[in-house]
Design goal:
The complex is a heterotrimer of chains A (422), B (315) and C (290). Chain A has 422 residues and is an alpha/beta fold. Helix content of chain A is 41%, strand content 18%. Chain A has two domains: 185 residues, Rossmann fold (3-Layer(aba) Sandwich); 156 residues, Response regulator (Rossmann fold, 3-Layer(aba) Sandwich). Chain A is globular, with a radius of gyration of 24 Å. Classes of the chains: A alpha/beta (422), B mainly alpha (315), C mainly alpha (290).
């Protein structure tokens, strides 16, 4: 191929023009305006694998902004949410937060949903000494040890251990005492951490671990796994799974007739109405972690008003129709920040951080107090059991008694029904 | 611009990039530009095999991730400095490229494409089960506190990526103009004929896979410092594989300029879309542009421009 | 932990899984193996099939498998349309290897995003009376959720096999990639033959998608997980042989199941793909290649 100099010049000119366009396009983005409202910035998973949760969280946060503005805003100013889609991809997070901070110049920042999308923002927050509210991150601060990080998921001061504390505390009370344990979980961030906690509890309780395996998220059929578990004849089966595998494992367990005294533990997805209404009575007897259920012991001020608002719009937004699991917490993590701003009458992050560390907050998920590492000072990972599920209707999951709280002590609303199957 | 002008321009670009880091305070541009430049390296690397030789690699994400995880391993084991990470990542990814090529390149091209798909899954499974680098739960990588000459680490990473991008493009350009490049072009046009004419096809193809793999690994090496939290799901993200193919296709696969144009254009569009559209629609951009270009403008943007110029001259 | 009971169950589960894999792979066996059209978007269309089945099931309570069957003509039409574009843009220009691949890659992305735009990324499940039920043969338990897709896949395999062997068009499809000239002499237009075949290939995606959602929850980007598996099966099956596809799929299913049972499910995908890489290196014509 022969090419002339002239062509090459033009080609170079094109490349140059594109570079200029690149910089120009970036500069033209919605720039910083000396705006009136207090701007809360975040990235949220609105597409990709975590979008179902991210969209529900966003809805809750919008309700918070609405509520706050209806009550006169913060510091007499309106609040506005500034957010971008992180596409469930950690790679987008650093760019989004630097954009929020250096171009949109937001006043406050909160995190996106989940450990993977919180962690990449941490160095940015640390280099600027900003208060950073986390939404459902598991033990993120263990590595960073950052003073101004606060996380709303009620995992507790020692997230890995506290996560399964309920399951193993309850196992201790079974008669006769269980001796063997099977642990199974997905090859992914949350489940690996939950399994570490489960192993530690097992060691403390002198349980013999007879099965301990992980499976890849792409697994189609869980029967071989459940059968291998069954073959070890465990007293307890602790599962740390994500939504599709929770369904797969549960179905396989029913089909095979898995026998155990207690079954469940850390199954993500069984908290969602969309999955509950598909599994129906299959759920009976499962013990699982949860964060909020409509039990009388958990009737916090404001929660029902919030849920009513959420449920009114959830259908149109295509998110979880009941919204018990994540949305109240997504509402609370901005609520805490808002209360701190009002109480200190300040947007200074140092002052805010100190205030959040030193005070208890009244939120729709009850009283929240943060410990030194930014996690809840005391764990409130609930252990609940599905009981008396008769069919696949949505309505029954809104009734008290369909998921009774077994742990912690303070919130107990029923008693454990065991064995799961024998 | 004469052929001689490439390197002076390249060096000027690097110097300008370093100058920018000293002048421009706003970090966001460096974060965004880093991603775009990273795609310049990936697209260029893909094109050495895909565009010049005609062999499609679906596993770019795997080579990229191997580079990134190679860095993680070396940081965890020896706290190795960035230049060492880059060299090591390049070497490991290059070797994997060579091995894959050796196993499959004697076959029809499409087998190679499928093998790269399979390779990505095997490598991802391996990393997922390798606890030293974090395994499935991922790993945190803390950036060094300070770095010489730059007032923030991301600016340093941006400058590094600029150097890598210029180097990658320089390598692609040299290949294009060398005997190797002509050999690869012969393979692309008609492999059997090339073989008959005495072109050592297997050797050239292996060279191309190795170089291409190396460059992809190099692109991934600084990535752990960029995200600070790495897990297999994001490191092996399909978007790398898609972009590595789409960018050269849209820019044009015949010359080194094509991938550069495609990466700058598509990479920037994605960065802008992330902070403006913020919806599923921005995912659609890549797909629609890719399909549109391969159907309507098979020579890519560079081909289109060139055709327009030629037509203009005839007039 | 090894018992005969476990082994027998693992093999049965693997065979059932393999049946489902066959259904997903058959479309590609035709497109890739017979027509040389490397449709990597095939799994994405399988997911599309899952969603159409879901839609009909959720709205009218129709059995998902019947819904899948009902939608085969629509998928056939989509297939014909895609092939026309593909032929006009790439095949005729002799440009299918590079740009044709990129075309399907882009198509895969578009299907996925379209599904996300319409349905969101929630996992979707279906209701059917047989989901959750089990039939037992001695100590071997067979979940109906797996048995129904397996039986259907077998029927599909046999039907396609018979079609290719017994009918004129079927034989034309089998011949189209090998001897275009002979085909033309027989009075069949190769492009039309390929168009028909590609339509059939895509129609299988509708059924396979229905099976997928019977087996477990589905979300839009799940198709990617199947690309590697499906190609592995088609290549191992000897590129274009319907029977070979069945055997390769069963083999892969059994290997995955055995690995999951005895060694650890974590390594199941790597074992399967390692097997493919090895096969490509040592016996590229597939296990049952010509």
């Amino acid at each position: 191929m022969t090419r002339t100099g002239g062509e090459r010049i033009r080609a170079w000119a094109l490349a140059g023009a594109l570079i200029v366009a690149t910089i120009g396009a970036a500069a033209w983005g919605p720039g910083a305006r000396a705006a009136d409202p207090i701007r809360v910035g975040f990235g949220m998973a609105l597409t990709g694998g975590l979008a179902a949760a991210g969209k529900a969280a966003l809805l809750a946060m919008e309700i918070w902004a609405q509520d706050t503005n209806d009550a006169g805003g913060l510091l007499g100013r309106e609040v506005a949410l500034v957010y971008y889609d992180d596409q469930s991809n950690p790679a987008n997070v650093p760019g989004i937060y630097t954009k929020l901070l250096s171009i949109d110049q937001v006043d406050l920042v909160v995190s996106g949903y989940g450990t993977n999308l919180i962690a990449p923002a941490m160095p940015i927050m640390m280099s600027r000494d900003l208060v950073f509210m986390g939404l459902f991150g598991l033990a993120v601060n263990e590595q960073f040890d950052y003073d101004n990080y606060f996380q709303i998921m009620p995992a507790g001061p020692d997230p890995r251990l506290d996560w399964s504390r309920g399951f193993f505390s309850l196992a201790e009370t079974l008669a006769p005492k269980p001796k063997t344990l099977a642990i199974v979980g997905a090859d992914a961030e949350f489940s690996r951490n939950a399994m570490i906690g489960a192993r530690a509890h097992a060691e403390a309780a002198a349980l013999e671990i007879v099965y301990d395996r992980t499976y890849p998220p792409a697994t189609v059929d869980y029967s071989p796994i459940v059968r291998a578990i069954q073959a070890t004849k465990p007293n307890l089966v602790y599962v740390a799974s994500y939504p599709p595998d929770s369904v797969g494992i549960l179905r396989a367990a029913k089909e095979i007739g898995l026998k155990a005294r207690m079954f469940g533990g850390g199954m993500v997805g069984l908290q969602y109405a969309s999955i509950q209404t598909k599994l129906g009575p299959m759920l009976n007897g499962i013990v699982n972690y949860d964060f909020w259920v409509p039990e009388p012991t958990l009737n916090f001020p404001g929660i029902n008003e919030f849920l009513a608002k959420y449920q009114a719009v959830a259908g149109d937004a295509g998110v979880d129709p009941l919204g018990y699991y994540l949305p109240p917490y997504a509402y609370s993590y901005v609520q805490v920040l808002g209360q701190a701003v009002e109480a200190t009458q300040s947007l200074d992050h140092k002052i805010l951080g100190a205030y959040i560390h030193g005070h208890e907050f009244d939120t729709v998920v009850g009283k929240v107090e943060f410990g030194a590492n930014g996690e809840w000072a005391r764990t409130r990972v609930l252990l609940v059991q599905f009981q008396g599920i008769e069919d696949k209707s949505l309505e029954q999951f809104t009734r008290p008694g369909s998921r009774v709280v077994l742990y912690p002590e303070e919130w107990v609303s029923g008693t454990l029904d065991y064995p799961y199957a024998e | 611009m004469a052929a001689k002008a490439f390197w002076p321009v390249a060096i000027a670009l690097i110097l300008a990039a370093i100058g920018l880091t000293q002048l421009l305070a706003n970090e966001y541009y460096f974060f965004a530009a880093y991603v775009v430049l990273q795609f310049v390296v990936l697209a260029t690397a893909w094109n050495i095999l895909g565009g010049y030789t005609g062999y499609v690699n679906f596993g770019s994400a795997a080579f990229f991730a191997v580079g990134a995880y190679c860095s993680v391993a070396l940081i965890k084991a020896f706290d190795a400095p960035l230049p060492v990470l880059i060299l090591a990542a390049g070497a490991v990814s290059g070797l994997i490229g060579l091995a894959t090529g050796y196993l499959t390149l004697r076959l029809k091209g499409v087998y190679f494409a499928i093998a790269t798909l399979a390779l990505a899954i095997v490598l991802e499974t391996f990393i997922t089960n390798w606890d030293f680098v974090g395994g499935a739960s991922g790993t945190f990588v803390l950036r060094p506190k300070e770095v010489w000459l730059f007032d923030s680490y991301i600016k340093f990473l941006f400058a590094v990526m600029m150097v890598l991008a210029v180097a990658a493009v320089g390598i692609a350009r040299s290949i294009e103009r060398s005997k190797l490049g002509r050999g690869l072009a012969a393979i692309r046009d008609d492999e059997v004929a090339a073989e008959c004419m005495g072109v050592p096809t297997l050797r050239l193809k292996l060279l191309a896979t190795t170089i291409s793999g190396t460059l992809m690994g190099v692109a991934g090496a600084p990535y752990p410092y960029y995200v600070t939290y790495l897990d297999p799901l994001s490191a092996f993200n399909l978007s790398y594989a898609v972009n590595a193919i789409a960018m050269p296709m849209i820019g044009g696969t015949m010359t080194w300029l094509g991938p550069v144009v495609g990466a700058l254009l598509l990479g920037t569009a994605q960065q802008v879309a992330t902070v403006t559209i913020s919806s599923e629609l921005n995912l659609l951009i890549v797909g629609v542009m890719l399909v549109g270009f391969v159907i309507l403008a098979p020579e890519g943007i560079v081909g289109l421009v060139r055709k327009t110029i030629r037509r203009g001259r005839r007039r | 932990m090894f018992t005969f009971d476990l082994l027998a169950n693992a093999i049965v589960a693997g065979v059932l899984l393999g049946g489902f894999y066959t259904a997903v792979s058959l479309g590609l066996t035709i497109a890739f193996g017979r027509l040389d059209v490397v449709n990597i978007a095939h799994p994405a269309f399988v997911i599309l099939g899952s969603y159409t089945a879901y839609m009909v099931n959720a709205a009218f309570g129709v059995d998902p498998v019947l819904a899948g069957l009902a939608f085969t003509p629509a998928f056939f039409a989509i297939g014909v349309g895609i092939y026309r574009v593909y032929h006009a843009s790439f095949e005729r220009r002799g440009d299918e290897s590079l740009r044709g691949l990129a075309f399907f890659f882009g198509l895969m992305f578009i299907v996925e995003v379209a599904l996300i735009l319409v349905y969101g990324v929630d996992y979707r499940l279906v209701d059917a009376p047989y989901i959750g039920a089990t039939v037992s043969f001695g100590f071997v338990g067979v979940p109906m959720r797996m048995l129904v897709p397996f039986a259907l896949a077998l029927i599909m395999t046999i039907a396609l096999q018979q079609y290719f062997v017994r009918t004129f068009m079927g034989r034309a499809i089998m011949a189209v990639s090998q001897d275009r000239l002979a085909l033309q002499l027989m009075g069949a237009d190769p492009t039309r033959v390929k168009q028909l075949a590609f339509g059939i290939a895509l129609a299988t995606a509708s059924l396979a998608g229905a099976m997928l959602i019977v087996i477990g929850p589905v979300e839009p980007s799940m198709g990617r997980l199947y690309i590697g598996r499906v190609f592995a099966i088609v290549v191992l099956g000897g590129m274009g042989s319907v029977g070979g596809t069945l055997i390769a799929a069963l083999l892969l299913g059994v290997i995955e199941s055995l690995t999951a049972t005895f060694y650890g499910p974590s390594w199941a995908p790597a074992v399967a793909f390692g097997f493919l890489l090895f096969a490509l290196a040592v016996r590229p014509q597939g296990l049952f290649g010509r």
